[in-house]
Every structure is written in structure tokens, then in C-alpha cells.
Amino acid sequence: MYRFNARFPVLSIVATVLLVVGALGLVGSVILFLLLATDGDRPWAALLGIPPGLLVIAVGESIYVLFAIEANTRAMAEWTRTAARPEKEP
Questions:
Q1: How many CB atoms within 10 Å of residue 50?
Q2: Number of Cα atoms under 13 Å in the Cβ half of residue 34
Q3: Exposed, middle or buried, 60 (CB in 10 Å: 0-12/13-18/19+)?
Q4: Tens-digit pLDDT string for the chain (90 aa)
Q5: How many Cα atoms occupy the beta-carbon half-sphere of 65 within 13 Å?
Q6: CB proximity list for 11: less than 8 A, separation 6 or greater
Q7: Is the whole model's pTM more than 0.90, yes or no?
Q8: How far, in Å, are 7, 36, 55 from residue 50 at the CA level?
Q9: How far is CA 39 from CA 24, 45, 49, in A?
Q10: How far from the centroid of its chain's Cα atoms is residue 61's Cα?
Q11: HSE (CB half, 13 Å, CA atoms) of 47?
């Protein structure tokens, strides 16, 4: 699903780390909510971690979207270059 971008290796690592950290934040918030809900001690406070987790995931996904846009733009530029060349007549 997510491929390492050889042109931007550090940014690929940052995007992957953001996705993992965001997912861990979401899972941790839900687990904390479930643990606090059984005790009855402010379980809703644990849900405050969900919006930041979603935001971190969205930033990581946005980086991958930019990678896809860059790859598509590069492919279209190459296609345009080859399509604009006149064909040689035999």
C-alpha cells in the first residue's frame, strides 16, 4: 500500500513514522478510555487523544498523496515528451 520513495527517502521515513505514531495514539486513547470507563473516573478525558491522533495520521497520509502527485506529474511529463516527438517516416 505505501511504497518507499527513493527520491525522498527521509520524507518517506517521516511519513511512515507519523502514520505509526498516529495509529498508536488512537489505539492508546481507545484502550485508555475502556480502562477508565470501568473505573468511572473521567473516561471522556481519554478521548481527547483521538483528534491529535487523526491529525498526525492525516499529515502522514498527505505526504504520501504528495508522492503520488509527484509521480503522476513526472509520468505525464515523460508521456508528453515522447508524444510530442515527430515520428520518422520510413
A1: 14
A2: 5
A3: buried
A4: 677 888 889 999 999 999 999 999 999 988 888 888 777 777 777 788 889 999 999 999 999 999 999 999 999 999 888 887 766 766
A5: 6
A6: 5, 63, 67
A7: no
A8: 32, 15, 9
A9: 23, 13, 19
A10: 2
A11: 6
Residue reference for cell 517521516: 14
d(CA 66, CA 89) in angstroms, rounded, equals: 40
At 63, list the grid cell.
Answer: 505526504
DSSP codes, the chain: -----TTSHHHHHHHHHHHHHHHHHHHHHHHHHHHHHHHTS-GGGGGGGHHHHHHHHHHHHHHHHHHHHHHHHHHHHHHHHHHHSPPPP-
Q: Which residue has the cell 498523496?
A: 65
Residue tagged 471522556 (cell numbers): 44
C-alpha cell at 18: 507519523
